[in-house]
């Protein structure tokens, strides 16, 4: 492992990481199994949506010209010559003065051009009731009213989804509606997480002096799920350099990404840093960001990309947000790997990070100033003087305020960029 001589900016560190990761191979999966995956190719719609002209209302399919003179004082009576239900394949013909009962979603007969909702007609039992043999229309209707035209939503052959799209519920429904059964997606990285620290108590063990409950694996596994990595293998290292180095070698050969937390400081027992010293393509960097200034990342000899994150829980979370999340999305071939900062009004004063990008966990909420436009406000979720260990307050944060290195302190009422990170 080598160490950077100078302090990098967060952007430089991110660029360094992104240069060393690329999209994983492609898999073919059923649309119904593809939720949360990333599309690997553009998909053109094999069908037009709607597939054919169909009714937007329960009512009568007519020729608008036949009822052009209808009015409350000169109603017109139409002869009912058929009925089409949703799913019905019939195409009844209409002569002048004919109507066909039609239900929402049913194909509009070729000979009709307009649908009159049943509420606007008089039937067997008066206004708005259904008619058996003839129906009375008391108003003219515009040609094409209540007809959903073939292809008005999506035309056959047009691009329905683009390589790099996250396949969320709406996108998958669009593909399913267009008759797409299978899609090509990027493989999801296989990720192993190793937590280190002899002070960490496993679940259900009693707490002795000096011990704390282990929480970083819960944090990291959750953050991984939030960027598409569902299956995560978690290891608890015993804090011996030799066994950790052995574990990292093993995991490095069978995973795409290995993440560790803790043990990268300059301390005498910072075993991750020591274990990674033998890895030539891993780099220890000091980054001008607060928290999360210590970053070790790079390619393990076995092939996996390693992120050795600081042990402090909020530092680990911020490292994940700044460097790991974009890399994992890039590996999945996602077209957009960055979050979009939005402006929010600071609810309190706080000290900036003097020469470092401050990434402060905040609670972001919508506010409506009297008479003004609605906007967002943000309040520190943790004490800005001691962020990196404040795992409790961090739990309430739904975003991070990004205060640039040269900006100085923040004063209540200032506008600051925030990124929203809640799932
Ligand atoms: N002399 C210096 N000391 C420290 C420096 C420095 O530059 N010079 N940097 C500080 C910063 S910044 C950080 S961040 C930490 C990095 O330390 P490590 O990555 O070695 O982390 P640990 O010492 O192992 O742990 C730090 C802290 O986090 C708690 N922790 C660790 N793992 C977990 C876990 N899985 N679940 C919950 N909590 C965890 C651990 O108990 C410590 O309190 O170094 C500073 N020191
Ligand atoms: O810089 Mo450490 O990595 O914040 O808490």
UniProtKB/TrEMBL annotation:
Q: Which segment of the chain is annotated as a signal peptide?
A: none
| Record bears the keyword Magnesium | yes
> What keywords appear on the UniProt entry?
Magnesium, Metal-binding, Molybdenum, Molybdenum cofactor biosynthesis, Transferase
- Which InterPro entries does the protein's record reference? MoaB/Mog-like_dom_sf, MoaB/Mog_dom, MoeA-like, MoeA_C_domain_IV_sf, MoeA_linker/N, MoeA_linker/N_sf
Recorded superkingdom: Bacteria
Q: What cofactor is needed?
A: Mg(2+)
Reactions catalysed: adenylyl-molybdopterin + molybdate = Mo-molybdopterin + AMP + H(+)
Membrane keyword on record: no
Cite the Gene3D superfamilies for this sequence.
MoaB/Mog-like domain, MoeA, C-terminal, domain IV, Molybdopterin biosynthesis moea protein, domain 2, Molybdopterin biosynthesis moea protein, domain 3
Tell me the SMART domains matching this sequence: MoCF_biosynth
- Location of the MoaB/Mog domain: 192-330
This protein's pathway reads: Cofactor biosynthesis; molybdopterin biosynthesis
Q: What is its EC number?
A: 2.10.1.1
The protein's job, in short, is: Catalyzes the insertion of molybdate into adenylated molybdopterin with the concomitant release of AMP.
Name the protein family.
Belongs to the MoeA family.
What is the designated name of this protein? Molybdopterin molybdenumtransferase
The source organism is Leucobacter coleopterorum
């Amino acid at each position: 492992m080598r160490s950077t001589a100078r302090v990098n900016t967060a952007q430089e560190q991110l660029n360094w990481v992104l240069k060393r990761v690329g999209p994983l191979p492609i898999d073919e999966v059923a649309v119904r199994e593809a939720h949360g995956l990333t599309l690997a190719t553009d998909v053109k719609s094999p069908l037009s949506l709607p597939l054919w002209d169909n009714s937007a209302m329960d009512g009568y399919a007519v020729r608008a010209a036949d009822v052009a003179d209808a009015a409350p004082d000169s109603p017109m009576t139409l002869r009912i010559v058929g009925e089409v239900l949703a799913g019905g394949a019939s195409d009844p013909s209409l002569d002048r003065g004919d109507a066909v009962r039609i239900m929402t979603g049913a194909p509009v007969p070729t000979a009709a051009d307009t649908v009159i909702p049943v509420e606007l007609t008089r039937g067997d039992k008066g206004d708005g009731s259904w008619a058996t043999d003839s129906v009375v229309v008391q108003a003219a209707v515009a040609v094409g009213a209540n007809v959903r035209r073939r292809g008005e939503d999506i035309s056959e052959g047009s691009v329905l989804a683009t390589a790099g799209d996250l396949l969320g519920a709406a996108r998958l429904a669009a593909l399913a509606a267009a008759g797409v059964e299978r899609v090509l997606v990027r493989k999801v990285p296989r990720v192993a997480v190793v937590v280190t620290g002899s002070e960490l108590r496993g679940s259900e063990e009693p707490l002795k002096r000096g011990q704390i409950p282990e929480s970083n694996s819960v944090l990291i596994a959750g953050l991984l799920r939030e960027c598409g990595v569902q299956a995560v293998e978690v290891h608890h290292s015993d804090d011996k350099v030799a066994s950790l180095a052995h574990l990292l070698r093993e995991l490095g050969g069978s995973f795409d990404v290995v993440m560790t937390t803790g043990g990268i400081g300059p301390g005498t027992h910072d075993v991750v840093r020591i274990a990674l010293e033998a890895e030539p393509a891993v780099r220890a960097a000091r980054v001008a960001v607060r928290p999360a200034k210590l970053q070790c990342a790079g390619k393990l000899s076995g092939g996996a990309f390693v992120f050795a994150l600081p042990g402090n829980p909020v530092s680990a979370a911020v490292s994940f947000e700044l460097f790991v999340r974009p890399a994992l999305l890039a590996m999945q071939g996602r077209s957009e790997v960055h979050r979009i900062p939005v402006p929010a009004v600071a609810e309190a004063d706080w000290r900036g990070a003097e020469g470092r990008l401050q990434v402060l966990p905040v609670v972001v909420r919508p506010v409506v100033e009297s008479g003004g436009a609605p906007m967002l406000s943000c309040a520190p979720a943790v004490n800005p003087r001691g962020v990196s260990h404040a795992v409790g307050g961090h739990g309430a944060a739904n975003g991070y305020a990004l205060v640039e290195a040269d900006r100085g302190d923040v004063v209540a009422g200032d506008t600051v960029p925030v990124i929203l990170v809640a799932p």
